[in-house]
Specification:
Elements: H1 4-12, H2 16-25, H3 27-37, H4 44-60, H5 65-79, H6 90-100, H7 102-105, H8 109-116, H9 123-136, H10 138-148
Helix pairs in contact: 2-3, 2-4, 3-4, 4-6, 5-6, 6-8, 6-9, 9-10
C-alpha cells in the first residue's frame, strides 16, 4: 500500500490514473484515505479529495456499484451521527458520487438533500454538492437549488 504523503500528492496533483489503479487494488483503503482528507474544511486537499470521489464514481461506478452505495450510506449515517463525529462534508461527498454517475445514483439526491437541509452546519457542503450536480445535470439539481435558495435570501426586517 502507498503512504499518506504519496497518496496526498496523487490527489492534489489530480493523478487520477494512479488513484484509479490504487482503487482497483484496494477500494476500501482509497475510501478511508479520501475520507481522511475531507476532515479539514476548506483545504486544497479536501476539495481535491471530493473531486477524486467524483472521478472514481464516473470511472468505476458501473463495476463497483455496491462500493459507492456503501459510501453513500456511510456518509448519510455520518451526517446523522450525534456523537460529535459528524460528517461535515458528507453532502459534498455524496454529491460528488451523484455527479460522477447521475444515471446510477440520482435517487440518493433527495436523501442527501433532506438530511442536510435543516442542519445549518451542512449548508456550505450542501450548496457545493448542488453546484457540482448542476454542472453535470442542471435539471436534476434545479428543484433542490430552488428549495435551498430561500435559506440564503436576505432577512426581512
Amino acid at each position: 500500500m502507498i503512504n499518506r504523503e504519496e497518496f496526498n500528492r496523487m490527489v492534489l496533483d489530480a493523478d487520477y490514473d494512479a488513484v484509479l489503479s490504487l482503487f482497483d487494488e484496494s477500494p476500501g483503503a482509497v475510501r478511508r484515505m479520501l475520507n481522511r482528507l475531507t476532515f479539514e474544511p476548506g483545504t486544497p486537499l479536501q476539495k481535491a479529495a471530493i473531486r477524486t470521489f467524483m472521478v472514481l464514481s464516473h470511472q468505476r461506478a458501473a463495476k463497483q456499484r455496491l462500493f459507492f452505495l456503501e459510501t453513500i450510506r456511510q456518509h448519510v449515517w455520518g451526517m446523522n451521527e450525534e456523537s460529535s463525529t459528524i460528517d461535515w462534508c458528507g453532502p459534498e461527498i455524496i454529491g460528488a458520487i451523484i455527479a460522477g454517475s447521475p444515471h446510477l445514483y440520482r435517487e440518493f439526491l433527495p436523501i442527501m438533500f433532506y438530511n442536510a437541509l435543516h442542519e445549518p452546519i451542512f449548508h456550505n457542503s450542501l450548496l457545493a454538492a448542488l453546484e457540482m450536480i448542476a454542472a453535470i445535470d442542471a435539471e436534476l439539481a434545479a428543484p433542490y437549488q430552488a428549495e435551498f435558495a430561500p435559506l440564503f435570501a436576505p432577512l426581512k426586517v
